[in-house]
Amino acid sequence: MEDTETELTAKALEKLVDIEKPILTEPDTIPIWNTKTGLESKYKVYSSDMLLRKLRQKNPDGTPLFSVTKPAIEPVTGKLKCYLHKGDPNREHWDEMGFPTCSKDNLSAPFHVRRHMQKRHKVEWAAMEEERKDREKQEERDFQRSLISSFKGEKPPLYVSEKDKAKNK
Questions:
Q1: Range of the domain at 41
Q2: Which pLDDT band holds residue 1 (cuts at 50, 70, 90)?
Q3: Are residues 62 and 106 in the same domain?
Q4: Three-class SS state of 70
């Protein structure tokens, strides 16, 4: 059952703290839902006009984009967590570095986790990336050292490949 715009407006206005005041002294946070995805957003409303403008937004097919009533659609959410989540295996290390915790735990793909980190935790992401690059460089150096030490005392091969050997004959 689709709500008409008038019903939506009436329901939205009922949720405001004081309808008589054209502008609220404190913003009121009203939950609104995306009618296609079912995702809830907390919308700060300073005046009834703001909420009405938001509720008048339409999807490309002409249906309302937002509703003040929860749609029957269950939102699709992921199970991946932000790297700064309290349940992350590296949380102890992040605490030592002074990183804050993040409650985001519904990301749907590794790409979304990275984008969340890049957009919401820019400084922490930069520090993590720098640490990762330093670790990779150190691993590469350790590998090179182990290769060099494995050849100690041996003469390097005269020819690298059979092709080079054939050229010099």
A1: 5-67
A2: very low
A3: no
A4: coil
